Amino acid sequence: MNEHEMKERTKNFAFRILDLADALPRTRSGNVIAGQIIRSGTSVAANYRALCRAKSRADFVNKTSIVEEEADESCFWLELLFDRGLLAARRVQPLLKEANELTAIFVASRKTAISRQRPFENRKSKIENP
C-alpha cells in the first residue's frame, strides 16, 4: 500500500469513527467514550499525515510510534464500548478489525524502520582528527 492509499485508508477510518461516535447513546459513559474514540481515531489519520513528512529515520520511527499508539488506543475504546453493549456487534466489529489491522501495519513499519536504522548508528567515522 502506497502513501496516498494509506492516507485515504486512515482518513476513511476517521470518518467511520466519527459516524460510530455519533451513534453512541447520549449517556455519561457514551459521551466519554465518544470523546475519547473521536480523539484517538481521528488522530490516527492526522498523525499519519505528519509521519509522511518525517525529516529523518529517527523522526519517522517516533511519528510511527505515535500513530501506532493512537490506533491501539482506538482498539481499546472500541473493545470497551462493545463489551458494555453500547452498540451492536455489526457496528463495532468491522471498525475494531480495521483498528487492529492499522495497529499491526504501524508496528511492522516501526520495527522495519528501526532495523534499518541500527546499522548506521553503530558505524564509526573513518575520518580521524589529528
Can you describe what's shown?
This protein has 130 residues and is mainly α. The protein has a single domain, classed as de novo design (two linked rop proteins) (Up-down Bundle), CATH 1.20.1440.60. It is built from 4 helices and no strands. It has helices at residues 3-23, 28-51, 57-83, 89-121. Helix 1 packs antiparallel against helix 2, helix 1 (3-23) packs antiparallel against helix 4 (89-121) and helix 2 (28-51) packs antiparallel against helix 3. The chain is elongated, with a radius of gyration of 18 Å. The termini are far apart. 27% of the residues are buried.
What are the key terms here?
130 residues, mainly alpha, de novo design (two linked rop proteins), 4 helices
What's the short story on this structure?
The chain is an all-alpha fold and 130 residues long.
